[in-house]
Amino acid sequence: MSATEAETQVVTAPKKAKKLKPARKQVKPGDVEKKEAPQTGKEYNIWYNKWAGGDREDSYSNKTKSQTRCNIKRDAGLTRANTTGVKYCCLFFARGCCPYGWECEYLHMLPDASTALPDTSKDCFARDKFADYRDDMGGVGSFQRQNRTLYIGRIKETGTGPETEEVVRRHFKEWGEIEKIRVLQYRSVAFVTYVSELNAQFAKESMACQSLDNDEILNVRWATEDPNPTSKVAEKRRLEEIGREAIQSRMDPRIVDAMRAMRALEDGVELGPEEEMPEEDEREAKRPRLIEDAHAEVSPSPPPLPETQQKSGILSADALEGMKYFAEIRRKNGLGSAAPPPPKTVVAPPPLPGGLGLGDYASDDED
Question: Considering only CA atoms, which of 97, 79, 94 is closest in space to residue 26?
């Protein structure tokens, strides 16, 4: 390498991870005007958060655009929850209207998919889930199904399907990694599937009553189950894989190795070098080998059975050798010196008097 090349070569140091700054206060107290739903009925339904007997909650005339919107790059930061260990996110931070900032008792950042929540019956905002979904698929959701897909309605389409998909992706990728997006063209509907359910929960609250590029008011709800059989099978395999990984992560690795070795013995497969036992197990395995060697010096093992005899019979060759080995030990310890009791002899009863014996009973052909 010449001197000029050495001068032009630039050594790039690894980038240091950015330290989070304290979370900012998204709004000031009193900036957000609280609007109550107009009374259109006589009874207020707390399940649907509306007056019973009035207009539908999903009616376009009853919807107003949200006054605030969260900006992750600008609003995310450290709060008291980072020191107290709280794993739940702030609901008002997701909606863009938390006035506490770094003094908030909940996290002001996206939920971490790799961190499990303390209670699986709650969402990422610490709200209790229910057994069933609401009729309009709104609300917190159900704990009986892992739902990662959002229904996005009332989209104003100004172009083709791919153009609408690009707009939806640009607005929804801010809340987490997206697995797939499906747009129903000319129906103003899209389905957004996230990799993690926690990100879907966060995005549902962040994009409720928000707009994309055309000043619309979005209707964000939970999506119903996909009727496609292929999607059902893929989702079932994914959940099984997650459950298998969770169980293996909590099990002792020595138990896993022992189960793998037992399964290999049952199947008659030899373990490879990468699947050998750890050192601790090897030490435990050497002890019975030493005992067997000591016994072998005292009493030689019987000769192995021929191959044809090993495969035939109910007991295997190993079982027969083990039985002979223990019989030899019992004989040497005096446990088997006593002679077995003699077999009982069966005496035939005498013939009945005046009756016909076997010799007297004959046919007429012998005369």
Answer: 97
